């Protein structure tokens, strides 16, 4: 059996590894537009700050790919697929026939206007090369502006701040991390990051990025001008659908995939940031990996042995020194549901339940207590009123009580 995978990110490589386990005899070829072997994309901010040695970012040593007998076509885009003949063509001239194909082309950073992304000093952060260039530039600059105040922006901001730059953060919304925080936890986070030197400009947007040969300043919509040599745009991601569109796969926000992660074309599967399942669009490492495990099995097995994908609840973690933030499921950012809230000077915890007491989301800021037990309860366990009451009463709540509830 010939299995071809487009994309060497976590979804593609996890799928390749799984396909090898399912089908030891298959020929497995992975096309990867990037020249680097799989690396931990979530750790790129540590490359920006210079804190992570380059070799530590790679998921596997080069020899691992040989042991797995994976044919890696690094730096080669899969540019053409003919579903009728099942012939694929790579940008460097490879030509192969596949039995099953996995599209795991991931996503790219969104590049909203009005920024000129070719102007030196303007960055997005998606690839290892972006992180290395940003590190190099940051070590020669004094001030940076971040467009967006989501998780990624906060991590880049902390990394640039640690390098001694003054970091201005622009956010259209009235608070930082609007999707991962409630107003109360956002205020706490804002204070912590302000103390670390980040300067927030809320309810504000970028009007222009100015500079002749390179960026020298940015202008905000209210007329404020900030002198800065670096602008990092962290405004979300856009699924990479170039190949899917060329193949005429059904796409919505991402490539539409069924419960087996098969696309509208039989024998062609999708996983990771480019895929959209009935549960929505992933955009997370954990989801790309979970989808890669299922898609990798399904591309390699007999049709009757295919597995269904069971959705992984979205969970985000802010990896900034001195601060723990986990937000998972529906954290009810507008405080419309019920549950338990605990807050003191250092920590904020919110557990959200539906009308039946089922845990539908939680957030923990400034504490890691209960992360494991709450992750296990999400979507599975119902919390009785006395547990909700005590969760609201003390940070030192005994989480064995949640652990012991049957799921
Ligand atoms: C800085 C940063 C921090 C993050 N932090 C977190 C975090 O804390 N937690 C979390 O869960 N997630 C995090 N994420 C998101 C997470 O990294 C992604 O969800 C995950 O990497 C997606 O994996 P993927 O394999 O679907 O796609 P990708 O990682 O995007 O890989 C797809 C690969 O396919 C290549 N490709 C595209 N088209 C083709 C083609 N036609 N032929 C061949 N190759 C092609 C792309 O170049 C890319 O190398 C972070 C992302 C970034 C950038």
Describe the structure.
With 407 residues, this protein is α/β, with parallel strands linked by helices. It has 3 domains: 2-108 and 238-305, 3-Layer(bba) Sandwich (FAD/NAD(P)-binding domain); 122-233, FAD/NAD(P)-binding domain, CATH 3.50.50; 322-403, FAD/NAD-linked reductase, C-terminal dimerisation domain (Enolase-like, domain 1, 2-Layer Sandwich). The protein is built from 11 helices and 26 strands. The chain has helices at residues 10-22, 44-48, 62-67, 128-138, 151-162, 183-195, 242-246, 285-300, 371-377, 385-393, 400-403, and strands at 2-6, 27-32, 70-74, 78-82, 87-90, 95-97, 100-103, 107-109, 122-123, 143-147, 166-171, 198-202, 206-210, 217-220, 225-227, 230-233, 237-239, 255-256, 268-270, 275-277, 280-281, 315-320, 323-329, 338-343, 348-353, 359-365. The strands form 7 sheets. It has a 5-stranded parallel beta sheet with strand order 3-2-1-7-19. A 5-stranded parallel beta sheet has the order 9-16-10-11-12. A hairpin with a 5-residue loop joins β25 and β26. α1 (10-22) packs parallel to α8 (285-300). It is globular. The two termini are 40 Å apart. The mean pLDDT is 94. It binds flavin-adenine dinucleotide (FAD).
Label the structural class. alpha/beta
Low-pLDDT segments: none
The CATH architecture of the largest domain: 3-Layer(bba) Sandwich
What Rg is obtained from the alpha carbons, in whole angstroms?
Answer: 23 Å
Looking at CATH, the homologous superfamily of the largest domain is: FAD/NAD(P)-binding domain
What ligand species are in this complex?
A: flavin-adenine dinucleotide
Question: How many DSSP helices?
Answer: 11
Amount of beta strand: 25-35%
Shape: globular
Task: Give the rounded overall mean pLDDT.
Answer: 94
Number of strands: 26
The CATH class of the largest domain: Alpha Beta
Helix content: 10-25%
For the biggest β-sheet, the strand order reads: 3-2-1-7-19
- How many discrete domains? 3
CATH topology of the largest domain: FAD/NAD(P)-binding domain
Distance between the ends: 40 Å
Largest sheet entry: 5 strands, parallel
């Amino acid at each position: 059996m010939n299995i071809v995978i487009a994309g060497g990110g976590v979804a593609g490589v996890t799928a390749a590894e799984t396909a090898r386990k399912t089908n030891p005899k298959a020929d497995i070829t992975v096309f990867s537009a990037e020249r680097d072997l799989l690396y931990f994309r979530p750790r790129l901010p540590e490359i920006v700050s210079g804190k992570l040695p380059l070799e530590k970012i790679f998921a596997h040593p080069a020899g691992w790919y040989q042991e797995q007998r994976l044919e890696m076509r690094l730096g080669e885009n899969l540019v053409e697929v003919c579903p009728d003949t099942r012939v694929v063509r790579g940008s460097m001239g490879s030509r192969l026939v596949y039995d099953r194909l996995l599209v795991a082309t991931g996503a790219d950073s969104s590049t909203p206007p009005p920024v000129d992304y070719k102007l030196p000093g303007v960055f997005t952060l998606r690839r290892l090369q972006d992180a290395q260039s940003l590190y190099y530039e940051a070590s020669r600059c004094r001030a940076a502006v971040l467009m967006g105040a989501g998780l990624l922006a906060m991590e880049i901001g902390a990394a640039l701040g640690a390098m001694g730059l003054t970091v201005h953060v622009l956010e259209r919304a009235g608070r930082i991390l609007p999707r991962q925080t409630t107003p109360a936890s956002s205020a706490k986070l804002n204070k912590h990051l302000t103390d670390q030197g980040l300067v927030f400009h809320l309810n504000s947007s970028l009007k222009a990025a100015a500079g002749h040969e390179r960026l020298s300043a940015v202008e905000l919509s209210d007329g404020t001008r900030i002198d800065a040599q670096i602008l990092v745009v962290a405004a979300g991601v856009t699924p990479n659908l170039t190949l899917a569109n060329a193949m005429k796969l059904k796409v919505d926000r991402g490539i539409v995939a069924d419960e087996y992660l098969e696309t509208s074309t039989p024998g062609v599967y999708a996983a990771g940031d480019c895929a959209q399942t009935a549960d929505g669009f992933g955009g997370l490492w954990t989801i790309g990996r979970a989808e890669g495990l299922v898609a990798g099995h399904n591309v390699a097995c007999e049709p009757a042995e295919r597995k269904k994908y069971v959705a992984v609840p979205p969970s985000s973690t802010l990896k900034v020194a001195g601060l723990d933030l986990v937000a998972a499921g529906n954290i009810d950012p507008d405080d419309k549901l019920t549950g338990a809230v605990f807050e003191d000077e250092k920590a904020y915890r919110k557990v959200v339940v539906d009308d039946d007491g089922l845990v539908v989301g939680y957030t923990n800021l400034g504490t890691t207590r209960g992360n494991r037990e709450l992750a296990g309860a999400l979507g599975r366990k119902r919390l009785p009123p006395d547990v909700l009451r005590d969760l609201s009463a003390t940070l030192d709540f005994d989480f064995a009580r949640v652990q012991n509830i049957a799921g």
